[in-house]
Amino acid sequence: MRSFFRFAGLVVALAVTLPAWCASKPHVVSLGKPQTVKIFFGQDESQSATVSVRPLYVDAKLKDYTMGEAHEVTDRQFVVQRAYRLNDSLPGEPTKQNTWMWQRGDWLLIDRVSGHIAQLKLPEFDAANSHLTWYRDFAAYYGTPDSGARWDAVVSQIGVRKPLFRKELAKATGSESSAGNCPAMKWERHPSRVTFSPIIGEPFTVNVVPHHAEELLEDNDSE
User: Fold this and answer.
1) Pick the residue with more confidence: 186 or 91?
2) So what's the pLDDT on residue 16?
3) Among 198, 199, 212, which Cα is nearest to 138's?
4) How many CA atoms lie within 13 A of 162 on its CB side?
5) b vs e for 170-202, b when ≥16 Cβ sit within 10 Å of the residue's Cβ?
6) Which residues, listed in sequence order, are joined to residue 157 by a DSSP beta bridge?
7) Which pLDDT tens digit goes with each residue over 184-194?
8) What is the pLDDT confidence band of residue 12, given thresholds at 50, 70 and 90?
9) Domain boundaries defined on the chain
């Protein structure tokens, strides 16, 4: 009987201590020293900009490269745009002389506690040309559908598959093909809203709440 109680006590002790042994250790997520590079964009890549690229480390291991400023979403998660190098060498050119071009990638959602890195799927987001502004977990940007035939004003939310708001602006030809030339979207709080100022057309404001957004229309009713 004494042996039984000793065995039962050992089982209880293991049940108490195992969760502590199995708990995952905290991860260290950091962005490295910035490096200034030039990127090209536009349909004919005739436009260029100078940006900062930084390596992304998890537990001192290189995981990816990032571009631009990070945005804190919560106390444990932040987003930052991915950067990558694309081989620009022509067929037949020596592989030892490969030419590499830095490119904008999709946005990454990074968890500081778990060290998990996820690629965000933002509807109609064009990594090369879309200009994006964050507020909380909302993103406002100029996007384009898969056909690339036009530019839309889009408001999305992290974790929501469909856009909260989408408004067709113009055909993606000529000067409209460079959404990056549009002024940055302006966010406000109380109430949460964002103002778009496209190159063509009048500025307009969108009221934004979780899972829903709609354009703020002027009251034209006569008094």
Assistant:
1) 186
2) 47
3) 212
4) 6
5) bebeeebbbbbebeebebeeeebbbbbebeeee
6) 138
7) 899 999 999 99
8) very low
9) 26-88+97-120, 123-223
Residues 58, 72: Cα–Cα separation, whole Å: 17
Cα–Cα distance, 156 to 162 (Å, whole number): 7
Q: In a 10 Å sphere around its CB, with 0-12 CB exposed, 13-18 middle and 19+ buried, how is residue 29 labelled? A: buried
pLDDT of amino acid 11: 45
Question: What is residue 89's three-state secondary structure?
Answer: coil
H/E run at residue 5: helix 2-22
pLDDT digits (tens, 9 = 90+) for 139-159: 999 998 876 678 899 999 999
Of residues 142, 127, 144, the one with CA closest to residue 185: 142
For 44-123, list the strands marked E by DSSP: 47-58, 61-72, 77-87, 100-111, 117-119
Contact 78, 118 (CB under 8 A): no
Q: What is the pLDDT of residue 46?
A: 74
Can you point out the beta strands (E) in 73-99?
77-87
CB atoms under 10 Å from CB of 81, counted, come to 20
